[in-house]
C-alpha cells in the first residue's frame, strides 16, 4: 500500500506540473495566436520538425537507460551525464551543418538561421534529461513542478513581449529555446547535483546497448508523428500547415496533462517491479482506468465545443482548424493508452520488441499517408486517425503477451468512461442549439453542464475510477506532508 501511495503522490505532482504548465501554455499560445499570423506558426512547424526528430536521441537515450538501471552508482550518473552531453553537442553540430539542406528542401532560405538557433536547445536538453533521470530514480517528482512551471511562464512572457514588439516568428523561437534553458537551470538548482570527473567505459557500453534499441524505436515513433507535418509542409501552404498543427495542439496539450504525468511515473515504477508481472499488470490497469476516466471527457467535450472555443479564444481567422481539432480529439482519446503500454514494454526490458512495433506502425502510417496526401489536408488528418487505431492494436499486443493485459482487457477498462461521456456530449450539443447568445456565456454553460453530467453519471454508477481517484486525492496532502 505504501508503494502504491507513493506512486500516486508522484503521479499527482507530475500531473499538477503538467496541468499548470499546460494551462500557462494554453494562455500564452492563445495570446501569441492573436498577435501572430498562421504563416508564422507554419514556418515554426517546419523549423521544429527535424529538431524534434533529433531531440529523440537526447530525451529517449541515456537518461532512459539510467532510470532502468536499478544498480546505478554515483559514478554511473556521471558517465550518463557526459554521454548525454556529448550526444547533445553532436546533434547540434549536425543540425547546424544540415540547416541549408533542410531549407533547400522547403525552398525557404530563412529556415537556416531559425534551425541553427533553435537547435541550441539540444545540448541543453541533454543536461535536463539526466537531471530528470535523477529525480525519477528517487521518485521525487515534486521537484519537477517548479522547473516545469518556471520554464513555461517565464519563456511565455518572453515570447509575448517579443511578439508585441513585432519580432514575428522570432517570438516563437525564443520562447521555445528559453523554455528549455530556464527549466534546466531551475531543475539544476532544486536537484543540487554535479557530475564527478569519472567515466566508466563498461557502463557506457551497457547504456549504449540498451538505449540504442529504445532510441531507435522512439525515433520511429517520432517520425510517425512528424510525417504529416513533413508532407503537408512540402505539398501545401504554411497556412494549411498552421491550421492543421493548431487543431492538433490543444487536444494534445490537454491529453498530455494526464498521459504525460502517468507515463513519467509509470516507467520507474514498473522498472522496480519487473520481477513480478502481477504487480506490473495492476499498475497498468490502474493507469489505464485513471487515464481513460480523465482523458475521455476532455476529448469528447473539446470536440463538442471546438467551434465555440476557437471563435472566442483564437478569433475567426483560425476557424479552419476546427475539423482538425475534432479529429485530434478522437485520436487522443484512443491513443491515451499508448504511453502506458510504451513504458511497460521499455521498463520490462523489451527494447527489441518496442523497436519492431515501431517499424510496423511506420509502415502502416506511410501507406495511409501516401494514399491520403493527394486528397487534401483533411484526408491526411483522417488517415492519421485510422493509423492511430491500428497503432493501438500493435502497441497492446506485447503487453498482452508479456504482462497478460491485452487489448480486450484494456478496452473493457476504458468502456465505462466512454459510456459516461456520451450523454455529456448530447447535453453540450443541445445547449449550443438552444442558446444562441454571447459566446463566453455559451462556453461556460457547456463546460459546467458537461462536467456535471459526466461526474454525476459516474457517481450514480459508482465508477471505480471516480472512487479510486477521489479516495487517493483525500490523502494526497497528508501523504505529501509525510513524504
How do the helices and strands line up, and which of them pair or pack?
Layout (H helix, E strand, L loop, with lengths): L1 H34 L2 H22 L2 H7 L5 H33 L4 H8 L2 H18 L3 H23 L4 H23 L9 H35 L2 H34 L5 H38 L7 H13 L3 H10 L3 H22 L4 H26 L4 H28 L4 H22 L3 H11 L1 H7 L1
Helix pairs in contact: 1-7, 1-10, 2-4, 2-5, 2-6, 2-9, 2-10, 3-6, 3-9, 4-5, 4-6, 4-9, 6-8, 7-8, 9-14, 10-11, 10-12, 10-13, 11-12, 11-16, 11-17, 11-18, 12-15, 13-15, 14-15, 16-17
Distance between the termini: 14 Å
Biggest sheet features:
none
Query: Average pLDDT, to the nearest integer?
Result: 78
Cα gyration radius (Å): 22 Å
Helix content: over 70%
* Helix-strand string: HHHHHHHHHHHHHHHHHHH
Pick out the low-confidence regions.
1-6, 479-483
Q: Quick one: overall form?
A: globular
In total, how many beta strands? 0
Tally of contiguous helical segments: 19
- Count of the separate structural domains: 1
Instruction: Give the class from helix and strand content and strand pairing.
Output: mainly alpha
Share of residues in strands:
under 5%
Description:
There is one protein chain. This protein is mainly alpha-helical and 483 residues long. The chain has one domain. Helices cover 86% and strands 0% of the residues. The chain has 19 helices and no strands. Helix 2 runs antiparallel to helix 4, helix 11 runs antiparallel to helix 12 and helix 11 runs antiparallel to helix 17. The longest helix has 38 residues.
Amino acid at each position: 500500500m505504501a508503494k502504491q501511495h507513493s506512486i500516486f503522490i508522484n503521479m499527482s505532482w507530475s500531473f499538477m506540473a503538467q496541468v499548470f504548465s499546460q494551462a500557462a501554455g494554453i494562455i500564452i499560445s492563445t495570446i501569441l495566436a492573436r498577435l501572430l499570423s498562421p504563416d508564422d506558426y507554419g514556418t515554426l512547424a517546419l523549423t521544429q520538425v527535424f529538431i524534434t526528430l533529433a531531440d529523440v536521441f537526447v530525451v529517449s537515450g541515456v537518461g532512459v537507460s539510467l532510470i532502468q538501471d536499478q544498480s546505478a552508482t554515483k559514478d554511473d550518473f556521471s558517465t550518463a551525464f557526459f554521454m548525454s552531453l556529448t550526444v547533445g553537442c553532436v546533434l547540434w553540430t549536425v543540425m547546424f551543418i544540415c540547416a541549408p539542406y533542410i531549407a533547400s528542401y522547403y525552398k525557404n532560405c530563412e529556415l537556416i538561421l531559425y534551425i541553427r538557433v533553435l537547435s541550441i536547445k539540444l545540448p541543453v536538453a541533454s543536461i535536463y534529461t539526466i537531471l530528470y533521470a535523477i529525480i525519477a530514480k528517487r521518485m521525487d517528482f515534486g521537484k519537477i513542478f517548479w522547473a516545469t512551471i518556471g520554464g513555461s511562464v517565464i519563456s511565455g512572457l518572453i515570447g509575448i513581449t517579443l511578439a508585441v514588439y513585432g519580432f514575428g516568428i522570432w517570438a516563437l523561437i525564443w520562447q521555445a529555446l528559453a523554455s528549455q534553458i530556464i527549466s534546466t537551470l531551475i531543475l539544476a538548482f532544486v536537484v543540487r547535483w554535479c557530475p564527478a570527473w569519472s567515466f566508466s567505459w563498461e557502463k557506457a557500453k551497457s547504456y549504449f546497448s540498451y538505449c540504442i534499441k529504445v532510441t531507435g524505436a522512439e525515433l520511429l515513433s517520432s517520425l510517425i508523428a512528424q510525417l504529416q507535418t513533413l508532407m503537408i509542409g512540402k505539398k501545401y501552404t504554411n497556412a494549411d500547415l498552421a491550421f492543421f498543427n493548431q487543431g492538433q495542439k490543444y487536444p494534445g496539450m490537454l491529453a498530455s496533462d494526464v498521459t504525460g504525468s502517468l507515463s513519467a511515473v509509470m516507467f520507474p515504477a514498473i522498472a522496480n517491479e519487473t520481477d513480478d508481472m502481477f504487480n506490473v499488470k495492476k499498475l497498468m490497469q490502474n493507469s489505464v482506468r485513471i487515464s481513460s476516466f480523465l482523458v475521455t471527457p476532455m476529448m469528447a467535450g473539446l470536440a463538442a465545443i471546438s467551434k465555440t472555443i476557437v471563435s472566442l479564444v483564437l478569433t475567426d481567422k483560425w476557424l479552419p482548424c476546427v475539423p482538425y481539432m475534432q479529429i485530434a480529439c478522437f485520436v487522443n482519446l484512443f491513443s491515451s493508452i499508448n504511453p502506458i503500454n510504451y513504458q511497460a514494454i521499455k521498463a520490462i526490458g523489451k527494447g527489441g520488441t518496442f523497436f519492431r512495433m515501431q517499424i510496423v506502425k511506420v509502415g502502416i502510417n506511410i501507406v495511409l499517408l501516401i494514399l491520403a496526401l493527394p486528397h487534401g489536408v483533411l484526408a491526411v488528418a483522417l488517415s492519421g486517425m485510422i493509423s492511430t487505431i491500428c497503432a493501438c492494436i500493435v502497441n497492446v499486443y506485447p503487453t498482452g503477451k508479456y504482462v497478460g493485459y491485452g487489448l480486450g482487457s484494456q478496452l473493457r477498462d476504458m468502456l465505462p468512461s466512454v459510456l459516461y461521456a456520451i450523454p455529456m456530449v448530447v447535453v453540450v450539443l443541445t445547449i449550443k442549439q438552444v442558446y444562441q447568445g454571447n459566446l463566453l456565456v455559451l462556453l461556460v454553460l457547456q463546460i459546467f453542464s458537461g462536467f456535471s453530467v459526466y461526474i454525476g453519471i459516474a457517481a450514480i454508477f459508482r465508477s471505480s475510477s471516480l472512487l479510486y481517484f477521489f479516495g487517493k486525492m483525500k490523502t494526497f496532502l497528508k501523504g505529501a506532508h509525510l513524504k
